[in-house]
Amino acid sequence: MVASFAPILARATKRAGGAKELEKHLPKAKSAKALKAVGDDRYLSLMCLRIFRAGLKHDLVDAKWPAFEKAFHRFEPKRIVAMPDEALDACMKNEGLIRHWGKLKSIPANAAAMLAIAKAHGGFGAYLADWSETDTVGLWADLTNRFQQLGGNSGPYFLRMAEKDTFILTDDVVKALVAAKVVAKKPTAKADLKRTQDAFNAWGEETGRPQCQLSRILALSVG
Fold it and tell me: Which of 26, 184, 193, 215 is packed most tightly, with the most Cβ within 10 A?
């Protein structure tokens, strides 16, 4: 049985300087309707932005993103899939871009994957909206399987950027999970990921809070 979230919330509230201050630090999750209203091109842009941010300073990547938007047709998936190989090769000579071949070549591959999902679900936003928050780790795994360069925490960070409800296994969140005796170490095995998901599901029922907020509160309770 998972321990109550109340002591974790109390520690985070104290560290934040009170309940009002704590709320200022908590992220929001979009409704299903809001997720469905976002175009596939914006989701693909966010996904690629997350991929290029990994391992680099975010402000450096963000400063170059307008050049990426131009080079990749504002991330319209159909137009990217139609790009000839020569156009992608030319990107390696474009000084306005981050010339990382592995990440650049993931863009058309991920555009194709997004098109397939959009066709099956009526849009990528519908795919996200319809995926239950009680199986967040299942969504992470599905993103990893379908898309390139979305392993590790990149999938969860992309979801957070898209404002799809998710928790993220940062060092502080893992530390809090260990302190709560949910897991003994960072969850990577299926059994530990299930324990983590079960804990978030139980805490969500207890508090009425989305997983993104539970995740941040866990981090603030120890960090």
Answer: 215
